[in-house]
Amino acid sequence: MSNSLFRKKSLTTILNDPSEPVDGHSSPELKKILGVRDLTSMGIAAVIGAGIFSTIGQAAFDGGPGVIFLFLITAVTCGFTALCYAEFASRVPVAGSAYTYSYVTFGEITAWVIGWALILEYGIGNVVVSISWSSYFVNLLEGVGMHLPTWLATDPYTAEDVYKAAVKAGSPTDGLAWTTAPLFAGYRIICNIPAFVIIILITILAFIGIRESRSSANFMVGLKLVVLAFIVGIGIFYIDTDNWTPFLPNGFTGVLKGVSAVFFAYIGFDAVSTTAEECANPQRDLPRGMIYSLIICTIIYVVVTLVITGMVNYSEFDGVADPLAYVFERINQGKIGFFISASAVVAATSVLLVFQIGQPRIWMSMSRDGLMPKRFGKIHPKFQTPGFSTVMTGVIVAIPSLFVGSALMTDLTSIGTLFAFAIVCGGVLMLPRREKTNGRFNLPYINGQWVVPVLFIIFLYSFRERVMGSVTNLTHEAHQEILFLIFLLITAVITVFSFLRKLSLIPVLGLLCCCYLMIEIPVFSWKVFFGWMAFGLAIYFSYGYWKSKLANKAKA
Question: Per the database record, which ranges form the Cationic amino acid transporter C-terminal domain (predicted)?
Fold first, then answer.
């Protein structure tokens, strides 16, 4: 059984047999219409969204203007991963992203786990974005004099928390969602209707076709870039350089407090790899699209952060949900702030679109391999999209968006994404090295035999107090520090292998950086994540393990 759990798909099989007939009928192919510009645009559409329009504010409050260093550090981490994705994309130019890549290198059980984890990134991640979209949309309605009842634009958990906080502070509770919501059978009816509606509309657009989705994404990306250029162009004249002093008001520790928020701002660039079968030249264009979008987004993040922290002192961003609009309101430019709020709605919409395109293609790939029912892999004869998978994605995202809060969903999204990133980086280490090929991306080999051990020693010295405290108080440690010790053990093992086998430096650094970011996520979210994984494995062993195409070939 252990051998069958790790059965692998060969590159030849994947490239020569990307699809098969469904229900006895020939399945049409996906349209191959995407080029470098389209892929870069989709990457920017996925990354430039809720992060720059919301989480950038809290990150600036924690780290001051120096939070730009965290954007650079996170970009480097994502850059390592992007290079590994690019290597896989140039070798395996089919849909499926990290799922397909892990099937080639680690085997079936790992591929299933990754595919299940990617649902957290694309599916659950869109729940978070839809909630952010709803907040901006309600603000827009308020700006034009339209008022949506508060109990129709939030989730019950957030509504209850706000109510309890108001009562504790002695503030009036009139008009809050919890007090105005109607009762039915003893329960308060509180739901986020705007979040639900936008998911339904985006799902319809993704269902209609990749050409329409591409055009919409390109338009929204263009609009976002114009808006951000406008913000920088106007805001630069209101910069007070005194606001940049001190540059690191809370030291580097304060900068690192924003890791979760900043990393979430980068989630999505890998969604480009799910559209491989719709690329005209995937071996050349996919890697370029991923790298270009990551570089452009990093430059945008750094420039915008410097502008807003120069316009308003970092200390004013605590709890500000719309920092870009806030800075213009502070300088008495309310109309510009309203315009920015409108652009934030567009930004979040483009993120929703890219993720709603990505998730169905993961399921389509899993269905082709027999791990999910054949219907998930069926291509709509008219629109040439994975129709059933797209509809199911819409249902799975839309229903939770009505009732859940964003905090836990954000952590789960980050864990699922980092987990997939780590597997991709590890998978590259298992690929056979190849000579440089014309017209295709080739990950440069840098010998990590001595570099990785030196970096490990520097890390141990820099975190010596935390290391010693964790080791000497092992039996009394909190779960978070136990995760830190597990990270040290993993790093030590990888360091030894790097020295003995001269492992490539880039994927090793990508793997270690992703693992470190994972251990900083709260333990409770890890427990939920393991529960999600257990549920996924139950599905695999009850269906996928027995229906797998590789299993059927082995029987034959």
Answer: 505-548
Nearest-angstrom CA–CA distance, 290 and 267:
12
- What's the pLDDT at 185? 82
With a CB cutoff of 8 Å and minimum separation 6, the contacts of 548 are 7, 108, 369, 370, 371
| Cβ partners under 8 Å of residue 302, min gap 6 | 68, 71, 72
The verdict on 217 and 243 lying in the same domain is yes
381-539-423-18 Cα dihedral, nearest 10 degrees? -30
Encode burial over 333-370: b for 16+ CB neighbours within 10 A, e otherwise: beebbbbbbbbbbbbbbbbbbbbbbbbbbbbbbbbbbb
For the chain, what percent of residues have pLDDT higher than 90? 14
DSSP secondary structure letter of residue 322: -
What is the reported pLDDT for 25?
Answer: 39
Confidence check: pLDDT of 15 > 70: no
> Element (H or E) spanning 164, and its range?
helix 156-169
**CB 10, CB 92: distance < 8 Å:** no
* Rg (the chain; Cα; Å): 24
Domain at 352, CATH number: 1.20.1740.10
Mean pLDDT of all residues in 269-294: 75
Measure the CA angle with vertex 253, ends 249 and 257; round to 5°: 100
Query: Of the segments 4-18, 207-221, 358-372, which one has the largest average pLDDT value?
Result: 358-372
Predicted confidence at residue 20, as pLDDT, reads 45
Pair (201, 254) in one structural domain: yes
Cα–Cα distance, 72 to 95 (Å, whole number): 29
Question: How far is CA 351 from each of CA 50, 271, 282, 343, 531, rounded to the nearest angstrom?
Answer: 8, 10, 22, 13, 27
DSSP 174-235: TT-HHHHSPEETTEE---BHHHHHHHHHHHHHHHH-HHHHHHHHHHHHHHHHHHHHHHHHHH
